[in-house]
Specification:
The chain is of the alpha/beta class and 400 residues long. The chain is 28% helix and 20% strand. The chain has 14 helices and 15 strands. It is globular, with a radius of gyration of 20 Å.
């Protein structure tokens, strides 16, 4: 689910931080980075044509029709002030409580508010008041558009590293989404910790962001424009794996990835061999009891989820066709049992002859570089000891 072409201006997320009036910033200073990003998104950026990379215009090969319909119902001013590097609309949202980190002018929030329905709730958090003013202006418009008796979306000003200051309590949300925003925060670990705190057990952080092929140099990290273009603050992708494990999340599940292109020769020269991709991952807050009870088994999707009657895509490698048993690893089993997916799944013992399907590579560059005829980018039957440990990190591979 990678969509960016639907975005335009006003997002306290990717694509557009960095005050043009200053060439350098201190990447270790949260206030310096925050001020730069707020200035750009609140005052400087006028449209997607101003961008110097495709980081915020990297779209998916196909957007599901029901999501396209919801996007089409978003007010033009909101849709015109939107940037991002992925389509952060996971499956099975009806009746859930969703938090959008870096909600900007609210496009993703309004799309998701339709999908969660009147019994669900969506809260957007952003640090830029100019964007929040636009989002709040259209709450009533979207309530009427979706035919709800009361609004199910609200917006709060705050920082992603300090969600407690925005009044968000422990164990509040079923799903957190974020679209090309975390790269702009200096302290990524703090964002993951806060996300973990406000999620319920079994809750999911489903987010798109920009990742680098290697560590970004200190010199590039001081470049204000490259911060705004979502590049200077990008994690080396292996850092996400280690941070997720450290915070307590499940092993990241790579959903999709797309390459990011540069629009100028000057940027190419400045970046050298450094490459970037946009990638969507799932991180799940799996309770210890589910990890302890997990085992390899078969999971069968019952086909009853709204908008996913025929098949449920779990990540870039694993999908669940309706009413067909799929052998899964202990790590995937723990996620399915503890999350919102559980009510749509039936579980049974795995026949010894049925091989477990598992992703063999968390590297988004492998997936982004894979040909259309091989969208999986690296899937294979996992060995008995599983391609991932249930605690979060990739285990030693011995298949394929």
């Amino acid at each position: 689910m990678s969509n960016c072409s639907d975005k335009s201006t006003s997002r306290s997320g990717c694509c557009g931080g960095g005050n043009p009036s200053q060439d350098k910033i201190n990447p270790s200073s949260s206030s310096d980075v925050h001020d730069s990003v707020k200035d750009y998104y609140g005052k400087q950026l006028q449209g997607s044509d101003d961008l110097k990379t495709s980081a915020c215009t990297t779209g998916p090969a196909a957007t599901p029709p029901y999501i396209r319909q919801a996007i089409g119902e978003v007010h033009d001013e909101v849709a015109g002030r939107y940037y991002g590097c992925g389509l952060v609309v996971p499956e099975m949202l009806e009746g859930t409580s969703v938090l959008d980190l870096g909600s900007g002018a609210g496009r993703d929030c309004f799309v998701v508010s339709k999908l969660v329905g009147e019994t669900g709730q969506v809260i957007g958090v952003d640090m830029t008041e100019e964007q929040l003013e636009v989002a709040r202006k259209y709450i009533e418009y979207h309530r009427e558009k979706f035919g709800f008796s009361k609004a199910n979306v609200a917006f709060r000003q705050g920082y992603l590293e300090k969600l407690d200051e925005a009044g968000l309590e422990d164990g509040t949300f079923d799903v957190i989404i974020s679209n090309c925003v975390i790269n702009l925060v200096p302290d990524k670990e703090a964002v993951l910790k806060e996300s973990y705190r406000v999620l319920r057990d079994g809750g999911e952080l489903y987010f798109s962001d920009v990742y680098a092929s290697e560590q970004v140099s200190d010199e590039l990290r001081r470049d204000a424009v490259l911060w705004g273009e979502c590049l200077s603050g990008a994690l080396y992708w292996e850092e996400l794996v280690s941070l997720a494990k450290k915070v307590g999340f499940s092993a990241p599940r790579l959903v999709r990835a797309a390459p990011i292109s540069m629009k100028s020769d000057d940027l190419h020269a400045k970046l050298g061999s450094l490459r970037f991709v946009s990638a969507t991952y799932r991180l799940v807050k799996v309770p210890e009891s589910a990890v302890a009870a997990s085992k390899e088994e078969c999971a069968t999707y019952d086909g009853s989820a709204a908008n996913s009657p025929a098949e449920l895509d779990f990540d870039h490698c694993i999908s669940f066709p309706a009413e067909k048993a799929v052998a899964v690893s202990a790590g995937v089993s723990a996620i399915l049992h503890s999350s919102r997916f559980s009510k749509y799944m039936k579980f049974s013992a795995r026949p010894c002859c049925q091989k477990v399907q598992e992703s063999d590579d968390l590297n988004p560059f492998t997936l982004a570089d894979s040909s259309p005829s091989q969208p999986g980018g690296g899937c294979c039957p996992a060995p008995a000891d599983s391609a991932y440990t249930t605690s979060g990190g990739p285990a030693k591979k011995s298949c394929c």
